[in-house]
Amino acid sequence: MRCHRAPTVLGSGQSEERDPLPVRTESQLGEPCWIDLETRDPARSIAFYGAFLGWRAVDTGADSGRYTMFFHGDAAVAGLTIQDPSGGNRDFWTTFLASDNVDETVQAANAAGATVFAPPQTIGDQGRLAVLTDPAGAAVGIWEAGFFAGFGADNEIGTPVWHELITRDFPAAIAFYEQVFGWTPIPLSDTTDFRYSTFGHDESMTGGVCNADAMLPEGVPSHWQVYIGVANVRAAAARVPELGGTVLREPWDSDFGTFAQIADATGAAFLLGQVQPEVS
């Protein structure tokens, strides 16, 4: 059902009592820089990620639409947005890619066959964002940093460690992100059974693209998915049902590490990737 051979993790407006948002080194164009959870039940989601990953939730206040920031330690690692339960949509994670100019990126994306879902908008002094669907139908966010650059930490335990585009049209997706976001795709495998490329700039790896048309069930669109780092995938996955979540795919080993696919307490899916703790 999914591509599970990501070459990743082992190689590698606010309230009065608000926490300062840590500033991360600026991301290059097209690099994943943020993830955002849309949930119908924010209290349940906050409880799940707090218990499971040790994330601390901070409400940024009414002026920001009650947007919630998740912190791992002192580092911002994700956000939470409330969605209307009456809409009938599942809960889901959105990956945001960095842009120097959201308006120009949206214009280029539109010309390259994307559909704009949420037009560019300013988020106080934090930055500007937009959301679109690529030519193969995968929803992706765009973030132009103002005060807030994105992840305060990544590629560590308790933080995002890999971002993956699962696409029904591999050639169209690769061409789109090359053209609009300046990716340099590097083929990992290019056979009829398994087509997968990493992407980044100057041969660096910041994520992957998987040809999944033959793998996805009917009705499941192209989509982005995020991997979160944990110290022990099997132990972490065993805790998921206790916290109200679901193990969608039991832990497995690959040439690139140990992984599992889970859904949180409200059904938003993501993957776990095993990361070696840093040696102090």
From TrEMBL:
Gene3D superfamilies membership: 2,3-Dihydroxybiphenyl 1,2-Dioxygenase, domain 1
Domain of life of the native organism: Bacteria
Family annotation (Pfam families): Glyoxalase
Domain VOC per the UniProt entry, residue ranges: 31-145, 159-275
Region (Disordered) location: 1-26
Signal peptide start-end: none
PANTHER family: GB|AAF24581.1, GLYOXALASE-RELATED
Protein name: VOC family protein
